[in-house]
Amino acid sequence: MDLIVRGGTVVTMDGARRVFENGAVAVKGGRIIAAGPLAEVERTYVAREIVNAGGKVIIPGIINGHTHVPMTLFRGLADDLDLQEWLTKYIFPAEAKNVTEEFVRVGARLGLAEMIRGGTTTFCDMYYFEDAIADESVKAGMRGVLGETIIDFPVADNKTNPEAMAYVESFVKKWQGNPLIIPAIAPHAPYTVSEEHLKAVRVFSDRTGAPIVTHISETKREVDESLKTKGATPIDYLNRIGFLNNRVIAAHVVWPSEEELGLLKKLGVGIVHNPQSNMKLASGVAPVPEMLKEDLPVGLGTDGAASNNDLNLWEEMDTAAKLHKVFSRDPKVVSAEEAFEMATIRGARALHLEKEIGSIEKGKRADLVVVDLDDLNQTPYYNIYSDLVYATKAADVRTVIIEGRVVMRDRRLLTLNEETIKADARRFRERIIRSIGAKTLPED
Ligand SMILES: [Zn+2]
Q1: pLDDT tens digit sequence for 391-442
Q2: Phi, psi for residue 230 in degrees, rounded to 5
Q3: Cα(96) to centroid of ligand 1, in Å?
Q4: Tens digits of per-residue pLDDT, 17-27?
Q5: For residue 87, how far is its CA from the centre of ligand 1 (angstroms)?
Q6: How many Å lie between the centroid of ligand 1 and the Cα of residue 411?
Q7: What is the dihedral of CA 296, 299, 303, 305, to 10 degrees?
Q8: CA–CA gap between residue 41 and residue 35 (Å, rounded)
Q9: Residue 206 CA to ligand 1 centre (angstroms)
């Protein structure tokens, strides 16, 4: 064996939801070879590297189902606005003036470091220069479903749709087959990409097998305008043009009808719920209890750090569980176990990766996270899911393993340099302030 993680409580998230108190996980060639009681695993296997997890909990790597990772550099740039105003007055102009390949690399490294520190081992991204994000992710040892953006106006890396389609063609060809990267195509939304271009995206995905990452039905306004201009809701419209299938990963889905949920289930569309982003932009409350009741593949995401303002899945789990309780005035909806599922195995289903990640099972990729279980905020401990979702913080994550490689040990990042990352990000802050005029920003 290459690695054995030993001695902790193993929360497998397998079909039977087995939990091994005093368990162990054996890893070889980036995959899980065995998971079970410590004595059993150690009787059968020896490894050259040991991670001691005694008194801690070993969980499947956390999945951030939706983000725009370089937007960490816009964290806190414009807050407390609605989506349209935030996008058109602040984010699109700031992006037009600042996004370069260097910006994307610096922002990606910042986001990757933040995610690894919080136990995220897979993220699903949509941005520009996605090839550079793939490169930074591989260097950091992070797994990613990475979608190059298609949008009907000139952006930093591609000025026209033919340019963007050519970019994504070579991007997908380059990264397909990499053990960490699943290259994808990411049409921004049905209101920013034409029908013709959406159809071309679907043809591209059918030909290459690349997943499609997109935003669907994020706000009521999007639904109303779609009804006005297209005579159909966004989901209805996308279905009518043959866009939806089991390679689509749809962020938000805040405003679907009951029939549309059935349609998404039938078509196998993955859904990513972003509770904090939806709350902060006042986009609405997605019908997550209904999605769970219908067993839809729904995961959790942070969305970009400009609208959240962090990449912390522990907060999203906690928020998801609580938001739906207060909204439905029913404390029984979205249990701690269900929220944890959404960040692990159900999140893997949302990304169409449930055969590879999302649980600690023989044959799956070795994405494992060791979390403290004895911090003050976790003491005493009665129920593992309740402790993880309601009491555990990102700072309780101790050690992170992705594809069998230790990328953080005892809270020290092994593949990224925190101090350099922070210095680079602060340099960009100066540039961004100058580019949009300092008057909208707080004093230094
Ligand atoms: Zn988004």
Answers
A1: 999 999 999 999 999 999 999 999 999 999 999 999 999 999 888 875 544 4
A2: -115, -10
A3: 17
A4: 999 999 999 99
A5: 11
A6: 28
A7: 160
A8: 7
A9: 23
